[in-house]
Amino acid sequence: MDNQPLREQGQPKVKRAYLRSPVWLFLIVAISITVAETAIMFLFEQLPPMPSLVKNIMDGVLLTILLFPVLYLFFFQPLKMHMAALQQAEGSPEKKNGEQAGWLKTQVAISHSPVRNLLVMAISIMVGETSIMFLFEQLPPMPPSAENFADGFLLTILLFPILYLFLLRPLRVHVAALGQAEKSLRQQNEELKEKTLQLIAAQEDLVRKEKLAVLGQVVGCIGHELRNPLGVMSNAVYFLQTVLPAADETTREYLNIIKDEIANANRIVTDLLDSVRSKPPHPEAVGVRKVIERILHQLTIPDSVSVRLDIPEALPALLVDAMQIKQVFRNLISNGVEAMPGGGALEIRALENKPDGTITVSVRDSGSGMTPEQLGKLFQPLFTTKARGIGLGLVVVKNLIEANGGTVEVQSEAGKGSMFSIVLPAAQ
Question: How far apart are CA 24 and CA 163, in angstroms?
Fold first, then answer.
């Protein structure tokens, strides 16, 4: 279905301007009648004298024939085009309103027949011309040019009520009706776009849940099985570090490497488990500044990354699960630091939204940023922009935030960094 407005579907824009101006149409008709009447009077001067009645009838017929192209171009054709466009506007208010549609049809019934219009105009011109000729016979003689001009001007004034009633008024009515139809189509177009976006979002959410379901089946089978050997290896490293206190530097370095990699593997398993099963939160009052400062002390922040906190002292506490929200902030801060391998600035701000009873916490980095394509897949399981990683950290973030009654939004631009904004309920 083509949802473009009618004006964009080939309807002439030029005709709209003069159809709204009776003065402009009056001038067109007046000039046309004056020029045509001058030509007819010149023709009559070349013919033998004839009775006034015959002359007036011939004048009316010839003037109607000469004027009809002008009337067709400026009245009949636009009216037909607007009628056709209005009839094609399915679902418009005018189409639904039967009483108004019937009135519109009555208003322009005469416009569908050029022959009928020709007859009406011919009779009107003959009657008007007869009246004008009778008036001129009562007045002193005047130059032919002045008489022709006065004839055209007076005939225009006499004809204009008929033109307005049978042509101009229906035209203006249909221009207004067509405008309403365009407005209705634009509104339907916007509604269709909105529904399309909602459908895309629902489809993406469904794909995300399907991935989580498949991932849950895999994790449920191997998660605990992986932790057992990791626990054994961790205990072995601890034993070796205990019994070999005097080991050389190379041995101690490799034992530390093994210990760190076991911790990384444990973290991956934890992320896997957390991404497919979220424990019900136990809300309590959690201070934003306190939890973030604690995380910053626990993480290793490179010297090349400067951290700036903008958290008011009087900011209310969050009403969330302390452990879950700590994991959320840890993941976001870690991601921000990892997005700036060459150094940069990490800014963490918090703002109270009193009308909503919420608090917005934003984490902004000056790193590499993301493309629109990457943003669209950001919260999909197993999608990552890192060289190392399995793409579950942000899945965990989204799940935990939504479990605590919050929302998360992302703004990012390639080469200019990213900002994650979290809205969470405030403690009363």
Answer: 13
The answer to whether 384 and 280 are in contact (CB under 8 A) is no
Domain ranges of the chain: 6-201, 204-276, 284-425
Q: Please tell me the distance from the alpha carbon of residue 270 to that of residue 216, in angstroms, as a whole number.
A: 13
Amino acid at 388: R
Phi-psi region of 397 (alpha: psi -120 to 50; beta: other; left: phi over 0): alpha
How, if at all, do strands 318-320 and 284-286 pair? antiparallel
CATH superfamily of the 284-425 domain: Histidine kinase-like ATPase, C-terminal domain (3.30.565.10)
Beta bridge partners of 420: 363, 410
Are the C-beta atoms of 236 and 242 separated by less than 8 Å? no
The string of pLDDT tens digits covering residues 407-418 is 999 998 888 889
In sequence order, what DSSP letters do the residues of 115-176 get, joined into one string? HHHHHHHHHHHHHHHHHHHHHHHHSPP--HHHHHHHHHHHHHHHHHHHHIIIIIHHHHHHHH
Query: DSSP secondary-structure letter at 345?
Result: E
Give, for 37, the enclosing helix (H) or strand (E). Answer: helix 22-46
Q: What is the pLDDT of residues 161-217, one digit of tens each?
A: 776 776 666 666 666 766 777 788 888 888 999 898 888 878 877 776 676 666 666
53-62 long-range contacts, CB within 8 A, separation 24+: 53/130, 55/133, 56/126, 56/129, 56/130, 56/133, 57/126, 59/125, 59/126, 59/129, 60/122, 60/123, 60/125, 60/126, 60/127, 60/129, 60/130, 61/122, 61/126, 62/36
Q: How far apart are CA 339 and CA 412, in angstroms?
A: 12
Distance from CA of residue 73 to its chain's centroid? Answer: 38
Name residues whose C-beta falls within 8 Å of residue 167's C-beta, 6 or more positions apart in sequence: 71, 75, 76, 79, 111, 117
Chain-centroid distance of CA 163 in Å reads: 43
pTM of the model: 0.46
Nearest to 80 by CA among 122, 53, 113, 55: 113
Question: Using an 8 Å Cβ cutoff, are 15 and 78 in contact?
Answer: yes
Return the pLDDT at 220: 61
CA–CA gap between residue 285 and residue 289 (Å, rounded): 12
